[in-house]
Amino acid sequence: MSFSEELIQEQNKKFEGANPQEIITWAIENAKNPVVTTNFRPYEVNILHAVTQVKSDIPVVWCDTGYNTPNTYRHAEELIERLGLQIDLYVPKQTTAHRDVVMGIPQIDDPRHAIFTEQVKLEPFRRAMEAHQPDVWFTNLRKGQTALRDSLDVLSLSKDGVLKVSPFYHYSDAELDAYLAEFDLPNEHKYFDPTKVLENRECGLHT
């Protein structure tokens, strides 16, 4: 199915007030090759649970920077087993130990920060998307996270023409917590993103 801007705007109006299952079901029914991406940060369990309830065998692309906390890795293993996630893992081409010696984690104002972000996040993500060639990409973008994300909606097109579907786009933290409680799902808050430094900084995958 071709996802035109006109169709996306039309569907976004229809999806005002819709629950995540309705949105996900519509997207799965119209997708040829859907994927969901995750980094197992806080509230990622919501999107992983919701999508796999509709399509249990959907490929789950995990781009692991190599800098996750022990809590995050334990949380990931718990969700992989509990939800039966079909994980396809992508990691940087250089090990964390090697990078720690030659670069470390550059500060935001360090010219090497762009190189660091490319190595640990952007290149593995591009590699994953090139391998999967999805037409529909489920993600947990939410309004209020960054200025860029405030300009999007439940449905949006990536720069490569992939339909991004964010079923929880209009959800608050409290609403996400209620979803977790309803389905007795664990969350994880000790997450570390070495590329963002500031909580409200865009990660680079959605620009």
TrEMBL record:
Domain Phosphoadenosine phosphosulphate reductase: 35-186
Superkingdom assignment: Bacteria
PANTHER family from the UniProt entry: PHOSPHOADENOSINE PHOSPHOSULFATE REDUCTASE
SUPFAM superfamilies xrefs: Adenine nucleotide alpha hydrolases-like
Record family assignment: Belongs to the PAPS reductase family. CysH subfamily.
Protein name: Phosphoadenosine phosphosulfate reductase family protein
Biological classification of the source: Bacteria, Pseudomonadati, Bacteroidota, Flavobacteriia, Flavobacteriales
Origin species: Euzebyella saccharophila
InterPro entries, per database record: PAPS_reduct_dom, Rossmann-like_a/b/a_fold
Pathway assigned to this chain's UniProt record: Sulfur metabolism; hydrogen sulfide biosynthesis; sulfite from sulfate
